[in-house]
Design brief:
By secondary structure, the chain is an alpha+beta fold. The chain has helices at about 10-20, 30-35, 40-50, 85-95, 120-135, 180-190, 200-205, 210-220, 255-265, 290-305, and strands spanning about 55-60, 70-80, 100-105, 110-115, 140-150, 170, 225-230, 240-250, 270-275, 280-285, 310-320. It is globular and about 50 Å long.
């Protein structure tokens, strides 16, 4: 029964998805050049991918660290939680506008949430409210600071080999770029659906096409907008999301770079996250099977025997929320 959900993508669909993966705002003309297809054929195929729920969203990756915020990862283990209560908790978390990413996981944790906050005190205030409302349903939780997040293209779509380490990213030292209301409204639109063209956004916000075009270019130049990505239902393309939480043995800067570069060579590694906490690295993959993932970990351990102290494997079973600008207009209220 489950297999009925899987769709087989032909080479052309794979090429379309790969071309849109980092640049979901690509024009049909440019996409036509890259794929040797007519605009009409492309339009038909993209609509079909959307209608079949393979392509389930388009969103700009907005680096919240450039706007004076930090990101934190919190893992939760439930206790005394039936299915109804779990859905209630998930709904509560989805509505929290300090949560950027929310997923159900299997393994030693049940839920992972990426929070955004100005600092540890701000996060603590947000978290206190959550514990007040649902704390009795958590047997344990783990908080770590997300230092940076490298994003890689889904090169497995084209069975493409990665030659060099050139990912997009968000994170690092926070900056405090100033935004006005129009900037914020543009980021809200792009975080919800970046496939909208400048004309559509201009109409919604009551400004000219050129105003939107110029503002988006400035936001990209300042690296506030990192990329424009597609959201794919992995189950539909017969992929699974596995991740490893890795404890490292005090790597030097050089060893760290070697490790990241080694991991990035595998075209199904889609994210590398450096964290400050109980473990130091999270490797996130979109693989065909658990065996493919465990083979990756075996290769990493063989290549870096003195660097890997321990690791934990998790499977992301459902993604509930992904929005790189969850704060919306609240970001304009910078008071602590």
């Amino acid at each position: 029964m489950e297999m009925a959900n899987h769709m087989s993508l032909d080479k052309i669909d794979q090429k379309i998805l790969w071309n849109m993966d980092y640049n979901a705002r690509i024009s049909l003309s440019e996409l036509a050049q890259n794929t040797n297809l007519s605009k009409q054929n492309l339009n038909y195929r993209i609509k079909k991918l959307v209608n079949e729920n393979i392509l389930v969203g388009f969103m700009s990756v907005i680096d919240i660290h450039h706007l004076g915020y930090l990101t934190y990862r919190i893992y939760f283990r439930f206790k005394n939680v039936d299915e109804q209560k779990e859905q209630e908790i998930i709904k509560y978390f989805k509505n929290n506008n300090h949560i950027l990413w929310l997923v159900s996981i299997s393994g030693s944790w049940d839920l992972e949430a990426v929070f955004t906050a100005r600092n540890n005190v701000h996060l603590n205030n947000i978290f206190k409210k959550i514990k007040e409302d649902f704390g009795k349903y958590f047997s344990k939780y783990n908080v770590s600071s997300s230092i940076f997040n490298y994003h890689f293209k889904r090169d497995y779509l084209l069975e493409k080999k990665r030659e060099e380490f050139m990912p997009k990213y968000y994170g690092f030292e926070p900056k405090q770029e100033e935004l006005d209301e129009l900037d914020v409204d543009i980021l809200i639109q792009l975080s919800e659906d970046c496939r909208q063209n400048n004309q559509e956004i201009a109409k919604k916000l009551g400004v000219t096409y050129h105003t939107i075009k110029n503002r988006v270019q400035v936001l990209e130049k300042k690296k506030i907008i990192q990329s424009h990505r597609t959201l794919i239902d992995l189950e539909k393309i017969n992929r699974k999301f596995y991740k490893a939480l890795i404890k490292l043995n005090n790597p030097s800067k050089e060893e760290e770079k070697k490790l990241y570069t080694f991991c990035s060579q595998f075209n199904f590694v889609v994210y590398l996250v450096e964290v400050l906490g109980e473990w130091q690295l999270e490797i996130e993959t979109e693989v065909e099977s658990q065996e493919e993932f465990t083979e990756l970990l075996r290769k990493i351990r063989n290549e870096f025997p003195d660097l890997i102290l321990d690791y934990e494997i998790l499977q992301v079973t459902k993604e509930h929320k992904l929005n790189y600008f969850p704060l919306g207009r609240e970001i304009l209220e910078r008071a602590p």
